[in-house]
């Protein structure tokens, strides 16, 4: 029997009916949220790395990957850099998140469109340097004032013009009138035109070839438009002959509804057409012993593997540009990424490369390149 002086009894596990309360370890209040953040960031970093690996494996190889190929190129740097910045919030998983993000950055940095040579000083421009202009005119001057359109061309004062998207529809009279005006606006220049591609040059043209197929003489304009996506002109510059390729590769895919069967049929068709166009261009480059220059609207972002067919063979003239992130395609006044390119063989030295405003006459900026032919002087 206890008295008031006895200490109170404490229930223990030895006393039936009086279970002891389990000991609860003290947990810092922030550990739970950090663990959840760590799991979420690990999943995100792993998913992004998986996407980059898949992109490296499937880009340019599988027609269903055409839509993922439209990922903004800068994302291949921006996303892993953001994940690296957030890794400190991942608690115990921060090392894993950082490792996954770093791997994605290493694999994707070359797809970003950043110009690593932006700080390099190009060689000085010699007095006899060649000025090249390449421009997707966006259906020529169909929606522009014709006088302003031609004035913008002549003001460039280029030696060679490579113009894409000349679209006279099916009106032969309009085509003849446009070409006649070109000759009036550019006296002394020679003109080569096939389908949507027009090349103007003050150097003599000694050969012309259409790729990937050269329709027979007399074919209608629409046939030429679909079949001719690179127009090669061989020019005589001083004592040497060079090849200039005016190129407009087909868009990756149309923007019709994915709920319609034609959407997937067209996607496969566009993929196959692009493959044919790129393969024909690459094959012609491989068998061409002359100094070469390729320029135009390739409808190919820096993140798309189709571009490898040119970067494996030629040098991007954009390395001589003054922008860390060159962009050539605009929508509603906003610059997105680069679709227009100029590539040269090692016979050329590029002194300057600029992307100029088209003054509302096209959704593509104008490529201006100043270069010289090595050994020509």
Question: For the record, what CATH class of the largest domain applies?
Answer: Alpha Beta
- Element-by-element helix/strand order: HHHEHEHEEEHEEHEHEEEEEE
Q: Mean of the pLDDT scores?
A: 88
Hey, roughly how much beta strand do the residues contain? Answer: 15-25%
The CATH architecture of the largest domain comes to 4-Layer Sandwich
Distinct helical segment count: 8
Largest sheet descriptor: 6 strands, mixed
Helix content, binned percent: 25-40%
Task: Let me know the CATH homologous superfamily of the largest domain.
Answer: Endonuclease/exonuclease/phosphatase
CATH topology of the largest domain: Deoxyribonuclease I, Chain A
Head-to-tail CA distance between termini? 119 Å
- Domains (count): 2
Q: Based on CA inertia axes, which overall geometry fits?
A: globular
Low-confidence stretches: 10-14
Strand order of the biggest β-sheet: 3-4-2-1-14-13
Main structural class: alpha+beta
Number of strands: 14
- Radius of gyration over alpha carbons? 30 Å
Ordered list of secondary-structure elements with their pairings:
Blueprint: H1 31-58, H2 75-86, H3 94-108, E1 130-136, H4 146-154, E2 160-164, H5 172-185, E3 190-194, E4 197-201, E5 205-212, H6 221-227, E6 228-237, E7 240-248, H7 261-286, E8 292-297, H8 308-311, E9 315-316, E10 330-331, E11 334-335, E12 340-344, E13 348-356, E14 366-373
Parallel strand pairs: 1-2, 7-8
Antiparallel strand pairs: 1-14, 2-4, 3-4, 5-6, 6-7, 8-12, 9-12, 10-11, 13-14
